[in-house]
Amino acid sequence: MNNISIIGAGIGGLTLGNVLKQHQYDFTIYESTPEIKPVGAGIMMAVNAMQVFNHLGLKEKIENAGNKIHRIVIANESLQTISKTEILELETHYNSCNVAIHRAELQQILAESLPSGCLQLNHSLQTIRKEENYILHFENGNQIESKIVFGADGIKSPIRNQILKTGIIRSSGQKCWRGLVDFDLPEKHHQEAFEMWGKGKRFGFVKISKKKVYWYACINENSFSLDASLADIFKDFDSLVLQLIEATESENIICNIISDLSPIPKWYTENLCLTGDAAHATTPNMGQGACQAIEDAYIIGKLLEKNQDFNAVFEAFQNIRRKKVDYIVNTSRTIGKISQWEKGNSFRNFLMGLIPESMNLKMAKRIIELEM
């Protein structure tokens, strides 16, 4: 029998494994895919996540594998700045900076620092039921009994659906392409995350390593014809956008509908707790989805320092985390709508430009301050 099982080896599940290792717990992580392979695109680890990795002794490894980002810029289609947030001051204060990195590289670093043998691949959870302990049935025929279960199994969480029987996935009405490409970005963009807002669409890019650039393109699904190509949709944007799109091989582009989870009443039940997207999936507009899963793991670790009763920890965990993740889910959803307005864009851009940088920094601080 297992004492602790974590379902899902995404960034949240792997971080939780590293936290439990630091507290000398035995655990097993079950992951549905046969290998942790370089799928997905880039990701930004904000200062809050990097502070957690600092506690885990992984900060430098992650910084070396990725690219440090010191400012966040929002611009219009022709690259004219609407708003800019320099975060050097926050970096100094928290002794961490934003790092843009390939998702798979990050997962690799997190997986490599786990105790050997605790990561079981090719274990896709089919059913879970509660008897005296939890009985986990996997598609490969394995059956495992586990005392404590963490559901780090994403927005479509089978654990949430089967045990807590809750959760409504909401579509944002937006479709997003994500691409990875070897590309020489102009030097002025090397240390920044850059996003352009147009009519019913936006485009962002960030350098994630010496050669690689990660970009994303989001559109309001109903506003563009289904057979329009990306290059067609973004032809009114600066030529840099078209160069990025055209330089990217189609197998290096993935496309998804953007959704989130409407807030659920409870993230835990006896001996079982949801973390990350399974508990509070958010749209990617604030770049905080994975970062909040990482914070979840950190807070669980901090609570375990004071109390080894997992059920008491689960309750305290939700009480501490709830307010911040609800704020992020709601704010992120709103930003998604505002950034893809179809009308009144120059007015929107004008208003955005009026927001003082100190206010943007205040919002950034609210997000990157850890609760414990």
From TrEMBL:
Which is one GO molecular function term here? Answer: monooxygenase activity
Keyword DNA damage attributed: no
Claim: Glycosyltransferase is one of the keywords in the record: no
**Keywords, in A-Z order:** Monooxygenase, Oxidoreductase
Task: Give one Pfam family, short name only.
Answer: FAD_binding_3
Q: Where is the signal peptide?
A: none
Q: Which Gene3D superfamilies match?
A: FAD/NAD(P)-binding domain (3.50.50.60)
Q: Which residue ranges does the record assign to the FAD-binding domain? A: 4-304
Q: Which domain of life is it from?
A: Bacteria
UniProt-recorded name of the protein: Monooxygenase
Organism in which the protein naturally occurs: Chryseobacterium candidae
